[in-house]
Design goal:
The complex is a heterodimer of chains A (263) and B (416).
Chain A lengths: L4 E7 L3 E8 L2 E9 L4 H16 L6 E7 L11 E2 L2 H12 L5 E5 L4 E6 L5 E6 L8 H10 L7 H5 L13 H13 L4 H20 L8 E4 L6 H11 L3 E2 L7 H13 L5
Parallel strand pairs in A: 1-4, 4-5, 6-9, 9-10
Antiparallel strand pairs in A: 1-2, 2-3, 6-7, 7-8
Chain B lengths: L1 H15 L1 H14 L6 H19 L4 E4 L6 H6 L2 E3 L1 H10 L4 H7 L9 H11 L8 E5 L4 H14 L3 E4 L7 H22 L5 H24 L9 H14 L4 H20 L9 E6 L10 H7 L2 E6 L14 H10 L7 H14 L4 E7 L3 H4 L2 H10 L4 E6 L9 H15 L1
Parallel strand pairs in B: 1-2, 1-3, 3-4, 5-6, 5-7, 7-8
Helix pairs in contact in B: 2-3, 3-12, 5-7, 6-7, 9-14, 10-12, 15-17
The chains are: A alpha/beta (263), B alpha/beta (416).
Chain lengths: 263, 416
């Protein structure tokens, strides 16, 4: 009997991920910036994840692609939306998950799911990238700090400075003005996180949010936003060890449940 | 520069010349001789005839909002001209961006893009001048203000039909009195004597079309779905708005009925394979080039019915035009309380054996988007997958292809 290995690949607007899944769990994964060529990054991501898992490409029985670039992965056997894949991945990691908050590079989603991990409803932001990963990248630059430090530093502030605009361009000007006014940067960071969380909370109110909540996507690495969400939802929020790969993991799980591709 | 101005002048002259539409008719007949979509061909001929009559100005040209019963115009011997429908045709032809950009200088970008497209066409002087404008207060709150503005722009009279929030006999009398007043006033303003036998004839023609619509809707319950929702939201809806009360309407709906009868008898669906049946909520869809229906087709999901084609009004009484048209107006499921619309949607879900629902959310459209969450709550409680699809019917700049694909595919994935 051969190895039962499956793969999922998530081509997002800012980052792309690949997960290699065996019978007993994740064998390896890769995270890369998407850049301008989704096809090339899909290939590179896949090769890197395979190398880390020490698995040969020929041993992968089936591949599912997800994310906005899912239709640009020529070697995938099937495409599934990131909505369905994030639900599946989050449910695999935290089986009691009934709500997923996914904030990625350019969009944010709230997804409700049933006890099997199937999507029951979802809401997503429309057209504008306000309050997403790209938004935080721009704000980190304006605040002259590293993106990875935003979350921790914001927790040092006792209160947040209210941020009125969620438009990336206007919020950047607002942050620069607040710095010029002498506001503490940590308080501005906290204000930004509260504004982002409040936006997600309003989106979630369109759905029937149930516990447990699992937070996925790159922005889930920001502890300041995790904290702000916990305050708003009045419940703890699960954060996976590597929240960026949950979509790719869900895709790999779908590949596994569908079985080997037809040859 | 000089050449460009000359070209624009020539195009405008051609658009405004009735001769263009008379010449186009045989040309299009020839070009479409191998196309067996007879109802579509009637729609094209109807439009050409409407344009010819509107620019020829042999009878008074009356601009009407799409929700005002067209029977009034045909019954009075006016030429109805519906700018909102024309804006959708202009969008379909890929020409809405220019007029919308021009209108944005005069109107808020929150105004419905069909109105902005029409406004741009007005500003560029492409449309036939109105002798009178009639609009109605129900369904589209923005329409009255838009048409009022146009009346002041053209310095022509504007008459309005106001429909109350609730139905009942008092409401019917209130609307019937207005319709009588509208007929009296418009005749006086245009110097015509109303001929009530022509009005009765228009109502009879409307009834004939209505009987075919009822049969068409019954045939559309068949599995597989015999008629594409994308066309239900374009020329079929266009004919419901624009042609009722005319011979064109009868001809169109009779032909469509015959065509569907044949398809259903042969068990033909419009998709090669139908796995899911969807209901489309809202009167419109995006008319510019987009992939919504192609994506659904790839996923074997048929748009089996659209709420805009729901037959909500009782047969008219030709001897009582004011009362029966008032009845038609107050029966409208999109006017008045949301409960009435929700009840009709539940009925459509049942009758058309619907698996999932798409509520299109047209930018700036309060009347439908305002109720989207309530409609969704009711349908979700029944376990029916439901999505709100944000977009814009006329402005391609207000449409996000990637997000639209994700929303549609996620809906299909929810269907299992």
């Amino acid at each position: 009997m051969g190895k039962r290995i499956y793969a999922g690949i998530d081509i997002g607007s800012l980052s792309s991920e690949a997960v290699i899944l065996g019978e007993n769990g994740i064998l390896g994964y890769s995270v890369r910036n998407t850049g301008a060529d989704p096809q090339r990054v899909a290939q590179e991501c896949m090769e890197e994840a395979l190398a880390r898992a020490n698995v040969a490409k020929e041993d992968v029985l089936s591949i599912v692609a997800t994310g906005y670039g899912r239709i640009r992965v020529p070697f995938a056997d099937r495409e599934i939306t990131e909505i369905t894949c994030h639900a599946k991945g989050a449910h695999f990691l935290f089986p009691e998950t009934r709500t997923v908050i996914d904030i990625g590079g350019q969009d944010s989603k709230v997804i409700t799911l049933d006890e099997r991990g199937a999507v029951t409803d979802f809401a997503m932001n429309d057209r504008c990238a306000a309050g997403t990963g790209r938004f935080l990248e721009v704000m980190a630059t304006a605040l002259e700090t590293k993106l990875s430090e935003l979350g921790q530093r914001s927790l040092e502030a006792k209160k947040g400075v209210p941020i009125s605009s969620m438009c990336t361009v206007f919020a950047e000007s607002e942050v620069i003005s607040l710095i010029a006014e002498g506001k503490r940067r940590e308080e501005i960071m906290r204000g930004l996180h509260e504004a982002i969380s409040s936006r997600v909370y309003r989106m979630a109110k369109k759905l029937r949010v149930k516990k447990e909540i699992t937070f996925t996507g790159g922005v889930a690495k920001n502890q300041g936003i995790v904290k702000a969400l916990e305050v708003l939802f009045k419940m703890p929020v699960n954060v996976p060890d590597e929240p960026q790969i949950v979509g790719a993991l869900g895709a790999a799980l779908y590949a596994r449940s569908a079985g080997p591709r037809a040859r | 520069m000089e050449n460009e101005r000359g070209r624009e002048k020539l195009i405008k002259w051609a658009v405004k010349s009735p001769l263009t539409y008379r010449l186009l008719r045989p040309v299009l007949d020839l070009l479409t001789r191998k196309n067996d979509n007879e109802p579509f061909k009637i729609w094209v001929r109807f439009l050409l005839d409407a344009m010819n009559n509107s620019y020829a100005r042999k009878q008074p040209v009356v601009w009407m909002s799409a929700f005002t019963p067209s029977e009034i115009a045909y019954g009075m011997g006016y030429v109805p001209f519906m700018p909102e429908i024309i804006a959708s045709v202009v969008t379909y032809l890929g020409k809405s961006k220019g007029p919308i950009a021009l209108a944005n200088a005069y109107a808020s970008s929150d105004l419905c893009s069909f109105h902005r497209c029409a406004l741009g066409l007005v500003m560029e002087d492409y449309l036939p001048k109105p002798d009178l404008i009639i609009s109605s207060s129900y369904l589209c709150e923005g329409a009255n203000k838009f048409f009022h503005y146009l009346a002041s722009y053209y310095r022509c009279p504007h008459l309005m039909v106001d429909a109350p929030y609730r139905g009942g006999s008092a409401a019917k009398k209130y609307v019937a009195d207005q319709l009588k007043e509208l007929v009296d006033k418009s005749s006086r303003l245009l110097g015509l004597v109303p001929d009530m036998s022509v009005m009765s004839q228009a109502l009879e023609l409307s009834n004939k079309a209505r009987a075919y619509i009822a049969e068409i809707n019954r045939l559309r319950r068949s599995r597989p779905s015999p008629f594409p929702g994308s066309e239900g939201l374009s020329y079929l809806a266009g004919m419901v708005f624009y042609s009722l009360g005319s011979k064109w309407g009868v001809d169109f709906f009779k032909t469509l009925h015959l065509s569907l009868e044949q398809k259903v008898a042969k068990g033909e669906g419009y998709l090669p394979e139908e796995k899911y049946r969807l209901l489309w909520l809202h009167h419109i869809r995006p008319y510019y080039k987009n992939e919504i229906f192609k994506i659904l087709e790839e996923k074997k999901a048929a748009v089996s019915f659209e709420e805009t084609n729901y037959l909500y009004w009782p047969a008219l009484e030709p001897s009582k035009p004011y009362e029966s048209l008032a009845d038609k107006i107050i029966s409208n499921i999109w006017a008045g309380s949301l409960e009435r619309r929700v009840h009709a949607i539940e009925e459509m879900v049942e009758e058309y054996d619907i698996d999932g629902v798409i509520h299109f959310s047209h930018w700036g459209c309060r009347q439908s988007c305002g109720g989207a969450a309530v409609v969704g709550d009711v349908l979700k409680q029944k376990g029916l997958p439901y999505i709100v699809l944000p977009g814009d019917g006329a402005d391609p700049d207000n449409f996000s292809p990637g997000q639209t694909r994700t929303r549609l595919e996620a809906l299909i994935e929810m269907l299992g």
